[in-house]
Write a structure and sequence with these properties.
It comes from Qipengyuania spongiae. This is SDR family NAD(P)-dependent oxidoreductase. InterPro entries: NAD(P)-bd_dom_sf. The chain has 264 residues and is α/β, with parallel strands linked by helices. Helix 1 packs across helix 6 and helix 7 runs parallel beside helix 11. The radius of gyration is 19 Å and the shape is globular.
Length: 264
């Protein structure tokens, strides 16, 4: 039985684990719902020695990568995957970015440094834009009264449904994809406002009013989100992994989540 070890069993990685287990893999993982404690170095190293693939979804902490800091030497001979962020590209003033675009100039400098470290170790770094899925989408924000529309014309973001991330990782792991960076995003970068408006339409709710960032009372973190503007190209993942998003735009993705909610 092939074995996958996951550092950090969060929202996305947990779904990857479920999919790999359904495909006959054994999955061991750290995290609150994992079966190995991150600080138990003997247990982690024992699991790594028995693993065929390793995935890390652990974000930077205090400017460095906790996994590489503690277990980097143990990973040098293993096939690796790392869940990174398209935030490594910084602001592109609405232009398209791909895996050859410069990194490290944006607000996520620590993430860019970790991304580079994993690539230097021979990993496949999956750069992810805004992740959404069941329980974590614009539909939830509208229902909770937390949705907003910010008056920033021409502000564009990319996003990806969690199921499409899972499909990309499965294709890479089981297909033996070569090391390097891969963008996993949908085919239609769009404004945050457009996504909110579609969620409101599906719920039969009135869209929130257009506001400035000051009027919306956005946190510094949320303001940072709006400080960057880019479109993320996914052509390499399609060519190399044979991957294509099942939810090519936010419309199909939100509709599928809403249908799942109705069924439940």
């Amino acid at each position: 039985m092939a074995r996958l070890f996951i550092f950090g069993l969060g929202y996305t990685a947990a779904r990857i684990a479920e999919s790999m287990e359904a495909r006959g893999w054994r999955v061991d993982a750290t995290g609150s719902s994992g079966n190995v404690a991150f600080d138990d170095e003997d247990a982690v190293r024992r699991a790594l020695r028995e693993s065929d693939q390793v995935l890390s979804s652990v974000p930077p902490a205090e400017g460095s990568d906790p996994v590489l800091d503690r277990y980097g030497r143990d990973l040098e001979t293993l096939p690796l995957a790392y869940l990174s962020s398209t935030g490594v590209y910084g602001d592109a003033a609405g232009a398209w970015v791909d895996e050859a675009s410069p990194t490290g100039g944006g607000r996520r400098s620590a993430r860019a440094a970790c991304d580079a470290s994993w690539l230097a170790l021979g990993a496949r770094a999956f750069r992810l834009p805004g992740i959404y899925g069941p329980g974590r989408s614009a539909l939830d924000r509208v229902r909770e009264g937390k949705a907003h529309r910010i008056d920033l014309p021409d502000q564009i973001f990319s996003r990806v449904h969690v199921d499409d991330i899972v499909a990309g990782l499965v294709a890479a792991i089981e297909g033996g994809a070569p090391p390097g960076a891969y963008n996993l995003g949908d085919d239609l970068p769009a404004s945050h406002n457009a996504v909110t408006e579609e969620a409101c339409r599906l719920l039969g709710a009135e869209p929130p009013p257009l506001q400035t960032m000051d009027e919306a009372g956005l946190s510094p973190m949320a303001r940072g989100f709006y400080a960057e503007n880019r479109r993320v190209a996914n052509g390499k993942a399609k060519r190399v992994l044979g991957w294509s998003p099942a939810y090519p735009t936010f419309r199909e993705g939100l509709a599928a989540i809403r249908a799942l909610e109705r069924h439940a």
